[in-house]
TrEMBL record:
Alphabetic keyword roster: DNA recombination, DNA-binding, Transposable element, Transposition
Superkingdom classification of source: Bacteria
Similarity remark: Belongs to the transposase mutator family.
One function term, GO molecular function aspect: transposase activity
Signal recorded as keyword: no
Function: Required for the transposition of the insertion element.
InterPro entries noted in UniProt: Transposase_mutator (IPR001207)
Name of the featured protein: Mutator family transposase
NCBIfam families named in the record: transpos_IS256
UniProt-listed Pfam families: Transposase_mut
Gene Ontology process terms (BP): DNA transposition
């Protein structure tokens, strides 16, 4: 875990946090970064950990797209987007994606443009264990923690030193961490670290030797 203060989530502020992680041992970088549309975060990730994959948060993305649609279309569009996120395979997600584009392109091109610009990264979770998808697609536990920290520190912001403020925020997050849900499929992390690729949430492994043994 890392914590730091910064200026409006700027690239330099995020870069300081990421370089701090790197100095503490995270040399290879994470396999996947999950975040909202904060440009500073993604720009810093690209510079410090260029090999890290990108997964935008789906709920904020959905909100951005709905903002480009009239309210009369929100219910149907929401269901059409959820058909993309909740598809069992990347192929099914791509089909749902194409259906959305076909349904809204003519009348609402701006909404389609917002969806298409992040097409590949929006579906990055399919290259990770299916058990991890619910953790990758949302950061609600972290957002809830941040809301608690903001609520508890808003009145003390101008009353304590920078170091004291950061220490207080750290202790609040550390306490909130105790209620976080344990990651599902924790044993799959070892496969990821060993470089085993995943497709549609399942490990891709060569079963030829096993088949040869059975044939023998």
């Amino acid at each position: 875990m890392a914590i730091g203060d910064g200026h409006r989530e700027s690239k330099e502020s995020w870069k300081d946090v990421l370089l701090g992680l790197k100095q503490r041992g995270l040399q290879a970088g994470p396999l996947l970064a999950v975040g909202d549309g904060a440009m500073g975060f993604w720009a810093a990730m690209e510079e410090v950990f260029p090999q890290t994959g990108r997964q935008p948060l789906l709920v904020p993305q959905m909100g951005n797209i709905l903002n480009a649609l009239p309210k009369s279309q929100h219910g149907r569009a929401k269901a059409d987007m959820q058909a993309i996120w909740m598809a069992a395979t990347r192929e099914e997600a791509q089909a749902a994606f194409a259906k959305f584009v076909g349904s809204y392109q003519a009348k609402y091109p701006k909404a389609v443009e917002k969806l298409e610009k992040d097409r590949d990264s929006l579906l990055a979770f399919y290259d990770f264990p299916a058990e991890h998808w619910q953790h990758i697609r949302t950061t609600n536990p972290i957002e809830s923690t941040f809301a608690t920290v903001r609520h508890r520190t808003s009145r003390t912001r101008n009353c304590v030193s920078r170091a004291t403020f950061l220490g207080l925020a750290f202790k609040l997050i550390e306490e909130a961490e105790k209620s976080w849900r344990r990651i599902r499929g924790v044993e799959k992390i070892e496969l990821l670290l060993k470089g085993v690729p995943f497709k549609d949430g399942e490990p891709v492994q060569d079963n030829l030797p096993v088949q040869q043994k059975l044939a023998a």
